[in-house]
Amino acid sequence: MTRILTAFKVVRTLKTGFGFTNVTAHQKWKFSRPGIRLLSVKAQTAHIVLEDGTKMKGYSFGHPSSVAGEVVFNTGLGGYPEAITDPAYKGQILTMANPIIGNGGAPDTTALDELGLSKYLESNGIKVSGLLVLDYSKDYNHWLATKSLGQWLQEEKVPAIYGVDTRMLTKIIRDKGTMLGKIEFEGQPVDFVDPNKQNLIAEVSTKDVKVYGKGNPTKVVAVDCGIKNNVIRLLVKRGAEVHLVPWNHDFTKMEYDGILIAGGPGNPALAEPLIQNVRKILESDRKEPLFGISTGNLITGLAAGAKTYKMSMANRGQNQPVLNITNKQAFITAQNHGYALDNTLPAGWKPLFVNVNDQTNEGIMHESKPFFAVQFHPEVTPGPIDTEYLFDSFFSLIKKGKATTITSVLPKPALVASRVEVSKVLILGSGGLSIGQAGEFDYSGSQAVKAMKEENVKTVLMNPNIASVQTNEVGLKQADTVYFLPITPQFVTEVIKAEQPDGLILGMGARQL
C-alpha cells in the first residue's frame, strides 16, 4: 500500500508541474482497498440501501441529504453532464457503470445557445434524484469545465456518493431487476419511495407554451413530456418553428404541419389527458405527420389501443442495437426507458423497430397514415448519431404530403457489396515508429492474416511489426511471405510486381498497446 500511495503522490506532483491540475500535490489520500481511491479523510459517509436488503457504504461528494427513488444504471462511457440533466431520470438514483466519473468536471451551467436553451445540458438543471459512482475524480481537466462535478451537485442539492461497488450494484439490478433504493446519511432516515406511482411527466413538463425558431416555415407542435434540448435544436435546424406545449395542453385544435411527442420519465399510463389528446388525433381525419420519441412511443401506443408494461431490466445506455423490421437495417442507439409496449397493437398498426438484445418493441408505425414513433433517442447527446436521420424522415413526411407512411420516406438500405474472389492479397503491416523501438504486437494486422487464411487466401505481409513476425514463427505459420520493407511507392510497387496479388489491404496499422 505504501508503494501505491507514493506512486500517486509522484504522479500528482508531475501532473501539477505540467499544469494538468490546479490542486496541490500535498492532498492526503485514503484507500478503502487497493486500487480504489477515496478523495479525503473528511468525506462524509453514507449508504445506498436497496429494497432487497442490500447495503453498500460510500462517501459523499454531492449534497449531504438522504433521498429515495428507483435505482437504475447507465452503461455509457461518457456524457455524464447530459445524462444527469436528462428529464427521463426524474425520480431515479442513477448508477454510472463507467468506473471513473468527474474527470471532465462540469460545464458552464448558465451558458445559453442562440435559442435560449442551456448550451451544454439537456434541461435546465440536474434531474436525477441521486448519483452513485465507483471512483469520483475531484480534479478535472476539460476545455468546457468551469467547476467540479461535486460542486455542481452541491449547488443543486443533489446527493451523490462514491466508493460504491457499482459493478456489483449493476449485476444485482441486472439479475433481480430495477428496484427501489435510498441514499441514507446518518441521522437522516428516509422511507422507500416508488416514483412510478407519481405523474413524473407533469413534474418535468413546461408550464407555458414556448416558441423556438420563430418565423421558420414549418410549424411543429412539440408536446413536452420531458423533452431534451437537442430535440428542439434538431427541429429548428431543419426549418421548424417549434411550439413547445405542456403535457396536458389541448393541441387537437391547433394548426400545425407536424406534431412531436417527446420523451420523458415515469409511467406513461399516468399521463391520461395526453393519451386522450393523442387518441383524438389518431382517430380524427387529420393526417399531419406524428413523431413520437421514447415516452412518445409509449403514449402513441397507448392512444392507439396497445398496452405497456414495466421492464424487469430497463434499457439505459448508448449502445443498444435495434433492427428496422421493414428493411432489416440495424442501428446502435441511445436509450433511457423502463417501460415498453407489449404485442397488443391494434389493426392498422405494426412494429417498426425491435431491440436485438431482448426483442422488446423499439418503434411502431401506422400502416396507412404518417404516424410513427421510436423507443430510442435519435437526438442522442450523448450517444451515436445512427438514427438522427429520422428527423429528416419526419420532415420528408411533412413535405411529401399527408397520404403516405414513414416507410415511403425512410432512406434505402445501403447496397451489400458482392464478394470479390481473390487468391492472394498484400497486407501493409504496422512497422515500427523509430529505430530502437520495442516491438509491440500488431493485433489488427495479425487478425487480417488469420481472416485471409480462413478463406484460403495467400497472404503477403509487408512492413511487419517485429513482434508480430516473432509470434508468426511459433506454431502454425500465418503469413505466407514476409517483406521487411518500408511503405513507400517504390517498394510497394516492386512487391506488387514480384508477388502479383489480387488485392491490397490498407490501414492495418493499429497497435494493441
UniProtKB/TrEMBL annotation:
It catalyses: hydrogencarbonate + NH4(+) + 2 ATP = carbamoyl phosphate + 2 ADP + phosphate + 2 H(+). GO terms for biological process: 'de novo' pyrimidine nucleobase biosynthetic process; glutamine metabolic process. The keyword Transferase does not apply. Residues 44-184 form the Carbamoyl-phosphate synthase small subunit N-terminal domain. Transmembrane segments: none annotated. Gene3D superfamilies: 3.40.50.20, 3.40.50.880, Carbamoyl-phosphate synthase small subunit, N-terminal domain. SMART domains: CPSase_sm_chain (SM01097). GO terms for molecular function: ATP binding; carbamoyl-phosphate synthase (ammonia) activity; carbamoyl-phosphate synthase (glutamine-hydrolyzing) activity; metal ion binding. Keywords: ATP-binding, Ligase, Metal-binding, Nucleotide-binding. PANTHER family: CARBAMOYL-PHOSPHATE SYNTHASE [AMMONIA], MITOCHONDRIAL, CARBAMOYLTRANSFERASE FAMILY MEMBER. This is Carbamoylphosphate synthetase I.
